[in-house]
Write a structure and sequence with these properties.
- By secondary structure, the protein is an all-alpha fold.
- The chain contains nine helices and no strands.
- The radius of gyration is 18 Å and the shape is elongated.
């Protein structure tokens, strides 16, 4: 059902998505949809959480396998994974992590970007061994918010993403994080 929801989001958009359409596409009775999801918002929430898990796994794998000559390579990698999902994962281009439905879709208590920044911070700590503290939390959260704004702009008029604006998102985040790097000897941004 989630795969069918993803395909339909790209085809008809959220406003024209319905549980009936999802059931028809999935070849199941509408009751089967309602057995798991009370409405289309619940289905898109599950899809958004699946996207977050996919993004997290991809970022974790790439960061763990990479050897960067400079920490800004990690910033590029994270943004590149987001861009790749936007271009190649059905439904992601339409839903992202759920803002089109609800800015708190992933977690009723936190903004979607906050949920993403907490997940990324945990990945960064697990991969790098950096201490998990308030400064790191704030830096990752601000970075996610800034990158999100510029990446939305990059994809607003270009379904593949304006390459120059994607570059600017990377530059913006790296520039912001550079002051943390300078304060801590230049090895990492925190």
């Amino acid at each position: 059902m989630l795969d069918c929801c993803a395909d339909l989001l790209d085809e008809v958009g959220y406003d024209n998505l319905s549980t009936t359409r999802i059931a028809e596409r999935a070849g199941v009775a509408i009751g089967s949809v309602y057995q798991f999801f009370p409405d289309k918002k619940a289905i898109t929430q599950a899809l958004g959480l699946r996207f977050l898990d996919q993004f997290s796994a991809r970022v974790t794998e790439r960061l763990a396998d990479a050897s960067f000559s400079h920490w800004t390579g990690a910033v590029d990698t994270i943004i590149d994974e987001y861009i790749d999902m936007h271009r190649n994962v059905p439904g992601f281009r339409s839903l992202h992590f759920g803002d089109i439905v609800d800015p708190r879709l992933l977690s009723g208590g936190s903004d979607n970007n906050r949920v993403i920044s907490v997940r990324l911070r945990k990945i960064i700590v697990s991969v790098t061994g950096l201490p998990d503290n308030d400064e790191l939390d704030r830096a990752v959260h601000v970075s996610v918010e800034a990158a999100d704004a510029v990446l939305k702009l990059a994809f607003r008029d270009n379904p593949e993403g304006d390459v120059a604006l994607v570059y600017e998102a990377k530059r913006l985040v790296s520039s912001y994080l550079s002051h943390f790097s300078e304060r801590n000897g230049g090895d990492h941004p925190w």
